[in-house]
Amino acid sequence: MKKMNRKKKRGLREFLYVLPFIIMVALFCYYPLYGWRYAFYDYKPPYPLSSDSFVGTKWFSYMVSNPIRRKQILQVLLNTFGISGLNMIFSWFPMMFAIFLNEIKCKPYQKFVQTVTTIPNFISWVLVYSIAYCVFNSTGVVNTVLQNLGLTDTPVMFLQSSDHIWFKMWLWNTWKNAGWAAIMYIAAITGIDEELIDAAKVDGANRWKTILHITIPTILPTFFVLQFLNMANFLSNGMEQFFVFENSFNTDTIQVLDLYVYNLAMKSGGYSLSVAIGILKSLVSVVLLCIMNTISKLTRGEGFI
Amino acid sequence: MKLKKLTSVLLASAMLLTSLAGCGSKAADVATTDGGNTATQTTEAAASDGTMVIEIYDEAANYQGIQEGWFAKVVKDRFDIELNIIAPQVAGEAIYQTRTSTGNLGDIVLLDSVHLADCVKNGLVKDISGDLANYSNLAAYTEQISYYNSGLEGNNGEIYGIPTEMMNTSPTSYSQDVIYSSPLLRWDLYKELGCPEMKDLNDLIDVLAQMQAAHPTNEAGDPVYAMSLWPDWDGNDNMIGIANVVQLTTWYGEKIKGSAILNSDGATFSKITDKDKSYYKILQFLNHAYKAGIVDPDSGTQDWNAACAKMSAGQVNLMWYSWQVGFWNSQDRLDDGTAFIYIPVADQNYYTEADAYFGSGRAFGIGSGVDEAKYKKILEFLDWYASPEGCTFQHAGIEGFNYEVNADGTYTAINTNALMDNLPVPEEYGGAGYSDGNNAINQWIVGSSSINPVNGESYAKDYWSSWKESTLTEMKKEWQSQFGADEPAEYMKKNNKLVISPNVAVSLASDTPDMELARTECNKALCDNSWKMIFAKDDAEFDAMWDAMVETMNGVGYEELYAFDCEKYQVEVDAKNSYK
Prior knowledge:
The structure holds two protein chains of two kinds. Helix content of chain A is 69%, strand content 0%. By secondary structure, chain A is an all-alpha fold. Chain A has a single domain (70-300), classed as MetI-like (MetI-like fold), CATH 1.10.3720.10. Chain B has two domains: 44-169 and 359-429, D-Maltodextrin-Binding Protein, domain 2 (3-Layer(aba) Sandwich), CATH 3.40.190.10; 181-355 and 475-577, D-Maltodextrin-Binding Protein, domain 2 (3-Layer(aba) Sandwich), CATH 3.40.190. In chain B, strand 7 and strand 8 form a beta hairpin. In chain B, helix 21 runs antiparallel to helix 22 and helix 21 crosses helix 23.
């Protein structure tokens, strides 16, 4: 009886340990879901929600209510998938970068490269755009050089064109994030047992073969876990980057889902519609995550959630 | 063991408290709605020496925080209050939503007419009809104030809003020297070409192209273009479309109201998508200008600051806002004739709003949450704000620092660069920079060209006889003899080029969520396509883009929006026409 009591007490104490976190999660992750109700009303501040403004699923059907809107939402989805897809296709890039970085034998130079490539991660997108504007505007560095070399008479409007915009966005994103994304892989590489590599060397493996048969296979699980997690975020490619680079000339091909929601809700009061889109996005993301988890279970024998 | 237990319990509870601290603001809000007194006491305690802090929710302000410097001293000396300004232009529009949903927007609110109507309906603004008569400076504007409030839906004589920028002239007169938007060119460059007469926009393009050919770069060697546009302001001020284009439509007597164009007859509306109307005409003008090589290629991607820097560096040859010349026209440039001034184009007639007799549309109100003491204080403050003394502080500045009083009671301006150069203010007037300490409310009850009863001249220095005398430069004299008028507005009146729209202040219908969304989407489609059209290669491409744009706009609800806006602004048009 006494033992039972002590166990109970310990349980209670441990429960108290986690209680703050439970409260926080409830407060910041689950309580906001209550805000989903706005999707079912005609909401307009400062008018409170009332039964008069209840509109059911109006905002959900609104998105596909006529050919122009269907075209718009399809284009937005296409942009989202295009840009996310491009990132996914090139997701091996930071991994390879980390591997090659690790092969640099001159330590100070290695550290230097790593620092230089990591720093852009801490620059906000707004500043990145200012840099881009200074470099690529009609009187910027690039145009001045091109004109001085006689390659072109009229300035080339880099920022104003919508050509290859997905690829350009991927380039900017990689410039900013590659160093940071490589950190995870560098950590994984450091964890490789030295003996494995030594043994391979004794067996006559050159550097290339060590990479191919030891480094890559060891860090592949890390790669897959990161990919699967990214998959769940397939629909959210963030909005800051596209928001700063968006202009009237490239908006058709750069407007991704997150930016679309922002443009609708924050530029004026399309709150209800934005919430409706947000709900759909969350649901799709949850489904994607579950699918990826199942695939992971089937192929690797273990899930990641 | 016991100690350990105690520590763990303490730690756990500390964490719990920290996590709950996030909800602090919520708790405070509850206090505000439940008992106004508790909340007021806390705010009052905020000022260290017992000074009352007045929160002003201010849609005109460009500064957020406690008012500082000389204006803070003026207010504190008279009322022992501090002004805490909450500026949605700084904090973002979302602050309106959050503050209104807590039920307390501010002690004083300064809102546009649509927001005011919404807030009145939701009980956020106090009725001051019972007390207005006791405050003589405000009571002097009773006609305008009751007229404004009678426009609020379902109003039975309550007074909620005090309109801003009211004038004591009449709703149909025009007493300014320059109008808000007209073609402004560099006088020296125009004279160099022999002051050619311009019949229409094509001639204007020719003149600008010749100017640019003669002077392709500024002194620093940077390229000069006739015009440099900026996209930041697109869709602002309740007018859909590119802000720069929207402004130029007033050159042909038309005015954009929401998604509709008010025709130059001042009575009927047309669609903004109508090819015979001024939006199309101006867009085409900009496209032709682009093809003539006189539009800055960065126009569509630069921001307002970049455009501003170009204006100040002399990289543009055409300006169109009356205030825009402030980036170039210094006293030196006016003296040597290199300043911007209005040059007429023969086929234009300009739309302008008459003197703001009934105000500019925004209005001051008092928050419904204030207690009796604060309420009285606010009324005293607003009454002073509309008094000759208050107006002189707002429009002319400090006696002895910004102006001197002449023997006949009129004023002469001194330290005229005080605002531009943020001159240090002497300690006795409150210290700090002049611009830093300037009235951050940034909106007045009485307009600046109203007449000061103390000396019979306007409050703003631009119309003082002493000022006119000192600014009559050689350039102005040349201009006067060329066009046979003293001032641009006089020239326009003489030549029948001015469409003066009577000033009214009516409360307009607020958008339904559907209309709000249609407005956003139509605006986006219109702006995005308009920018592409400015940079179109030829007329065929231009027209193809226009047609595609109209189709898109119709698809996202333009027809409904147009019908809604016609009905919405008909109220205003009817009021205007009642003065004709």
